[in-house]
Amino acid sequence: MATIDYFERRLDDKKRLTIPSEIRAEFKSGVVVTRGFKKYLHLYSKAVWDDLVEPALKGDILDETTADINVQFRTGKIEGPLDAKQGRILLEQHLLDYAGIGKDIIAVRAGQYWRLSRKTARGFKAQA
Prior knowledge:
globular, alpha+beta, 3 helices, seven-stranded antiparallel beta sheet
């Protein structure tokens, strides 16, 4: 079975993103969505967030870079379960606005998380 590293979706009218059935098990612990480093979103499994991201965010209390990353990732962060029946997650409007996402989304695996970006005529668009 091939590994899925990319998918495209259209949000439903309630701003829910349907995760492909082939990768839903990856999110059995839940999902965390944050702002990305640029104008895109990060989608993590709750397990990856708890095991890898949270420890990395602790850092030195006086380190400005650590503080900036905490502000970036925690502002507007959402988390919750993946809808078990249809494999959907709700993306709140403030996150969609941040990333400039309308209805169409491109998701690209970036190691142990996913980048969610708006779809353009040319494909992936991560604004600076």
